[in-house]
Amino acid sequence: MYIAMNRFMIAPGKEPGFEEVWKTRDSYLEEVPGFVEFKLLKGPVSEEAALYVSHTIWENKADFEAWTCSEAFRKAHKQAKAPDGTYLGHPQFEGFEVLLEKNITK
Amino acid sequence: MYIAMNRFMIAPGKEPGFEEVWKTRDSYLEEVPGFVEFKLLKGPVSEEAALYVSHTIWENKADFEAWTCSEAFRKAHKQAKAPDGTYLGHPQFEGFEVLLEKNITK
After folding, report:
1. pTM
2. Does the residue A81 lie in any domain?
3. What is the ipTM for the molecules in this complex?
4. CATH number for the domain including B44?
5. Do β-strands B92-103 and A92-103 pair in parallel, antiparallel, or remain unpaired?
6. Which of residues 9-48 of A touch B (CB under 8 A)?
7. How many domains does chain A have?
8. Using CB atoms within 10 A as the burial measure, which of A4, A17, B46, B90 is most buried?
9. Which residue, A55, A50, A38, A56, is CA-closest to A86?
């Protein structure tokens, strides 16, 4: 299992426009081999910025990397963008391997 | 749903000791109301540090906050610590609400 997260720092007051982009676009992820789950997370908010994280689980890192070169990726990323001034800097990508796991069903 | 993440920056060469602490300690999370899932993630590694993230899902933020004041929390955190020099600074806590979700079973 592999978790791909992108961290977005959003300017104060620009949160609704950012969220709207995610709510209305089609990610085409269901058609992608190895895709398991997508979440959009809203984290800490300060006077300077709000932190959002796109959180996507894949069967493995190779499936994630194949997606970034795919037609589904291209289609998902050519849709509507958030208004100018929404983003404070570039998104910060972080990829993670799962070392340990415990849940209430195991 | 609420996701609590703690970010740990680990000194080069100290990764095995850090991982060992997580593998061997008992978290007592199964007994905690509202606990859903725990993962330990290993992220990007640079010459300066390796990023690890403890990633815990809760039914809601109130259940997470109640846990931090509980006997289970106290027991989990009084166990063996990683060797001196393992941590580069304090862990950075970030809590997240789930705004959107999509997975292969929905």
Report:
1. 0.90
2. yes
3. 0.88
4. 3.30.70.100
5. unpaired
6. 19, 22-23, 27, 29-30, 35-44
7. 1
8. A4
9. A50
